[in-house]
Amino acid sequence: MLRTLFTVAFMLSVSPSLGAQEKLSAESASANFQKNFASAYNRGDVDAMAAAFAEDAIRVTPSGIFQGRDAIRRSFQEALKIGLHDYSVRRVVSRTEGSFILNVGEWQAKVGDQPFRGYYSAILAGDGDEMRIIEETVSIAAP
């Protein structure tokens, strides 16, 4: 009986810390993922930007619905053609459920000297280097 109580007490004290470590690991991976994506965007590396998405991902923007990595790659090519630069993101919410991560936040960029900003939500799946965006919705903030 005493052994069972110690085992239960130990499990109760360990479980939250393991969950916290998993959450920290997922948040760290998500932060690195976003940093690498923003860097690719600012370099104009359309292939690296598209590689952040799963092969069958869906991206919804004010310009339309893009299904699949090739369509998403073309949408980024169009964005870069208009001179979008100085892209950055700030996550406001990040939630992990199993191997999925939901990120919600704000983005900003410029076309020429004119700043633009908006909001995004993205669902990522996978772990580490295998993490990919499976769905992203992007909006532009009202002036």
Characterization of this structure:
With 143 residues, the chain is an alpha+beta fold. It has a single domain (2-140), classed as Nuclear Transport Factor 2, Chain: A. Helix content is 43%, strand content 42%. It has a six-stranded mixed beta sheet with strand order 2-1-6-5-4-3. The longest helix is centred in the first third of the chain and has 42 residues, at 2-43.
Write out key terms for the chains shown.
single chain, 143 residues, alpha+beta, Nuclear Transport Factor 2, Chain: A, 6-stranded mixed sheet, 3 helices, globular, NTF2-like_dom_sf
Largest beta sheet, briefly? Answer: 6 strands, mixed
Per CATH, what is the topology? Nuclear Transport Factor 2, Chain: A
Instruction: Tell me the quaternary state.
Output: single chain
Which percent bin holds the helix content?
Answer: 40-55%
The coarse silhouette is globular
Number of helix segments?
3
Order of strands, widest sheet: 2-1-6-5-4-3
Q: Can you count the beta strands?
A: 6
Residue ranges: pLDDT <50 for 5 or more in a row? Answer: 1-22
**Cα gyration radius (Å):** 19 Å
Instruction: Please indicate the percent range of residues in DSSP E strands (runs of 2 or more).
Output: 35-45%
CATH C-level:
Alpha Beta
N-to-C series of helices and strands = HHEEHEEEE
How far apart the termini lie comes to 66 Å
Overall pLDDT confidence: 84
CATH architecture: Roll
Structural class estimated from helices and strands: alpha+beta
Domain module count: 1
